[in-house]
Amino acid sequence: MTSHLTSLASTAYAKAANQPDLKGPSFADAELAVNNSNFIKTYDVLVGDKGRAHLMPKRGIAVICCMDARLDPNAMLGLEVGDAHIIRNGGGRAADALRSLIGSQEALQTREIIVIHHEDCGFSHASTTVVQKALKARTPLSAHPFVDAVSLQEFSDPRESVQEDVAFLREHPLVHPDSKISGWVYRVSNGELLRAC
Ligand SMILES: [Zn+2]
To answer: N or C, fewer C-beta in 10 Å, the chain?
Structure first.
């Protein structure tokens, strides 16, 4: 446990001032049901027919984006519920998104791919080596082969990593040849999207 905390303290995550309270009741137990009942009351206004439409994305777009809690992909792109598939993972890495992307293209006819990485990404502060060390400290030896297989696919420059991922998609034999693919870097400081490729 100590080595786990030490390894986390060595990363940028330790600087966060908005640490969650992990000792209280879970969100699922304390708030979720009330929040959802409020959502149901506003569903017709906030979602309505866009949520009841056919499941095929209206704009034919698949967005690959980081899971970062500060990013709101539909809002930054001016898209609405029903317009696009939003495929999210740590870093917004294309290789990790491939299973969903293939389903999006083959089953639901999306043909434009927008890849978004961002400044101050957790996966640019992260280290596979540090995480593997923390995992090994809290798991039995039998789990260590799984730990050795872990890769965070971390990166240092989001412009370079998004260019890498767009090249990966353009060259991938399973990505539809008619795909229009672009790569963007999102600035968390002001919401700007800068085109990288
Ligand atoms: Zn990120």
So the answer is: N
Q: Which amino acid is at 109?
A: Q
| Euclidean distance between CA atoms 17 and 20, whole angstroms | 9
In a structure prediction context, what are the per-residue pLDDT tens digits for the chain, which is 197 residues long?
334 444 444 455 656 677 888 889 999 999 999 999 999 999 999 999 999 999 999 999 999 999 999 999 999 999 999 999 999 999 999 999 999 999 999 999 999 999 999 999 999 999 999 999 999 999 999 999 999 999 999 999 999 999 999 999 999 999 999 999 999 999 999 999 999 99
| Statement: the pTM of the whole predicted model exceeds 0.70 | yes
To the question of whether residue 118 is assigned a binding role by annotation, the answer is yes
| CATH code that applies to domain 2-9+56-195 | 3.40.1050.10
What's the gap in Å between 117 CA and the centre of ligand 1?
A: 7
What's the gap in Å between 41 CA and the centre of ligand 1?
Answer: 33
Is 65 marked as binding a ligand? no
